[in-house]
Design goal:
11 strands, Rossmann fold, 2 domains, Dehydroquinate synthase-like, alpha domain, alpha/beta, 408 residues, binds fe (ii) ion, disordered N terminus
C-alpha cells in the first residue's frame, strides 16, 4: 500500500477499548521453533477516524457522547475559517453547543495552565472535551477531561494521588505529527517551580474518539515538523525495542517507522505535501498506540529533565539523543535494528544521523553549555523514570553519564 507515495485513504477503526486481552497463540511463520506468544493486553481508543477532511465529523462524534462540548484548541486554529470554526460548525449541525477555552497554553503545559482549563470546563458545564492541537494542547484537554469529576487539586494527582472517578469523554484531534498524545493514557505536565516534568496516568484517559485529519497538519511550520517528526521516530523505535513490546505493538511500531522514515524529510521540505503529511500523521498515531502499551526507553528517560531545565523542545532533544542511545542499545536490539535497516536501505543508526542532519538538527547539546555538575543532576533526575526502566539494555548511572558525555 502506498509504495508510490499515494495518499492513504480515509478509514475508520472501531474497537471496544481493549484488544487482544489475554491473547494466546503461536507464531506459524517460524515452524522450526514454534513458541507460544506470551500474554499481553493492548489498550486503544474506542474509535479512530483517519483521513483528509475528517475534521468535520467532530460534531457528530461529540453529539454521540454529550450535549455541550468544551474545545481546547491551539490559538493558531482560531482564525476565521480555521479548524476551530469547522469543529464548532459541525457541533452546531449535530445539534450540540460548544464553548472554546479562551486561554490555552502556548508552550508545554504546566500545572497552572491545566488547572485553568479544568476550572473553565467545569464553569461552562460541558460534558465532552475536544482537544485540537499538538501534544501540549491534547495533554491539557486530556487532563481536564480525565479529572473533570475529581475534587482534589491537580497538583495532588501530579504528585501521585490515584484518580478515583472516571472523567468525561475526550475527543483528540492532533494537528502535529509527533507526540502521539492523541493515543496515550498519560498527560505529560510540568511544575516549573520544582523543575519536574512527569505524567498523570490513568487508562481511562484514553480518547474515546481520535479524529486524525492530515489537512490539519499542513500549516505546521518546518521547524516543528522536523522536531516533532523525530519525536515520532524516536517513539516508534523505542517502543519497537522496549522491554514491554508485544507482537501487536511491534507491528504498529514497525509500520510507524516505515511511514516516518519515508515521509519526514518530504514533509519538512514541502509542508503542503499532503501525501507526506498523511504518512506522518498516521505514523505518529501508530507510534502513539505502540508506546502507550509497550512504553519507551532511555531517550525519553533523559528527555524530561533536559526539557524542563534548558527549555529545549521535546522533539529536538529526542532527535539529538536518538542515535547515541541506539548505539548504546545496539548489541541487545540487533535483530530489530536489522529489520529497521532493511526499511531504511542502509544501517539504521547511520540513517538516523543522516536524517537528523538533513533536518538541520544539531548532533549534540553543546550550545546549552551543560556543566558536569548539571550532567549529574540530569542523571539523578532520569534514574527513577518509568521509560528508562523499559530500555532494552539496563541503563545505570554510569551509562547515562557516558551517553551524555558524548553530547555536552
Ligand atoms: Fe516523545
Amino acid at each position: 500500500m502506498n509504495r508510490k507515495g499515494m495518499r492513504l485513504c480515509n478509514f475508520s477503526l472501531v474497537e471496544n477499548g481493549t484488544l487482544g486481552q489475554n491473547l494466546r497463540g503461536v507464531d506459524l511463520a517460524d515452524k522450526g521453533k514454534i513458541k507460544m506468544i506470551e500474554r499481553f493486553t493492548l489498550l486503544t481508543s474506542g474509535k479512530i477516524i483517519f483521513g483528509a477532511g475528517t475534521a468535520d465529523s467532530a460534531g457528530a462524534e461529540a453529539a454521540a457522547l454529550g450535549r455541550r462540548a468544551f474545545i481546547v484548541a491551539d490559538r493558531h486554529f482560531r482564525e476565521a475559517g480555521g479548524a476551530v470554526e469547522i469543529v464548532r460548525h459541525s457541533c452546531a449541525q449535530a445539534g450540540i453547543e460548544s464553548v472554546v477555552f479562551d486561554s490555552p497554553p502556548t508552550g508545554e503545559p504546566d500545572l497552572d495552565a491545566v488547572e485553568r482549563a479544568r476550572q473553565a470546563q467545569r464553569s461552562a458545564q460541558c460534558d465532552v472535551v475536544i482537544g485540537l492541537g499538538g501534544g501540549s494542547i491534547l495533554d491539557t484537554a486530556k487532563a481536564a477531561a480525565g479529572l473533570a469529576r475529581e475534587a482534589g487539586p491537580l497538583r495532588e494527582y501530579f504528585d501521585g494521588r490515584a484518580v478515583g472517578a472516571a472523567g468525561i469523554p475526550f475527543i483528540a484531534m492532533p494537528t502535529t505529527a509527533g507526540s502521539g498524545a492523541e493515543a496515550t493514557v498519560n498527560a505529560v505536565l510540568s511544575d516549573p517551580s520544582r523543575q519536574i516534568k512527569q505524567s498523570i496516568r490513568d487508562n481511562r484517559f484514553l480518547a474515546r474518539v481520535i479524529i486524525a485529519d492530515p489537512r490539519l497538519t499542513l500549516s505546521c511550520p518546518p521547524r516543528t515538523t522536523a522536531d516533532s517528526g523525530m519525536d515520532a521516530l524516536a517513539q516508534a523505535i523505542e517502543s519497537f525495542t522496549s522491554l514491554g513490546a508485544n507482537p501487536m505493538t511491534d507491528a504498529l511500531a514497525f509500520e510507524a517507522a516505515r511511514l516516518i522514515l519515508r515521509s519526514l524529510l518530504p514533509a519538512y521540505r514541502d509542508g503542503q505535501n499532503l501525501d507526506a503529511r498523511s504518512d506522518m500523521l498516521l505514523g505518529s498515531l501508530m507510534a502513539g498506540i505502540a508506546l502507550t502499551n509497550a512504553r519507551l526507553g532511555a531517550i525519553h528517560g533523559l528527555a524530561h529533565p533536559l526539557g524542563i531545565r534548558w527549555h529545549i523542545p521535546h522533539g529536538r532533544i529526542c532527535a539529538i539523543l536518538l542515535a547515541p542511545v541506539m548505539r548504546f542499545n545496539e548489541n541487545v536490539a540487533k535483530a530489530k535494528y536489522v529489520r529497521l535497516s532493511e526499511l531504511a536501505g542502509e544501517e539504521i543508526i547511520t540513517h538516523v544521523e543522516r536524517l537528523r542532519d538533513a533536518l538541520d538538527i544539531p548532533a549534540d547539546l553543546k550550545e546549552y553549555r551543560i556543566t558536569s555538575e548539571e550532567v549529574e543532576w540530569i542523571v539523578k533526575e532520569s534514574l527513577p523514570s518509568g521509560s528508562l526502566k523499559m530500555n532494552p539494555r539496563p541503563a545505570r548511572a554510569e551509562d547515562l553519564r557516558e551517553i551524555l558525555a558524548s553530547l555536552v
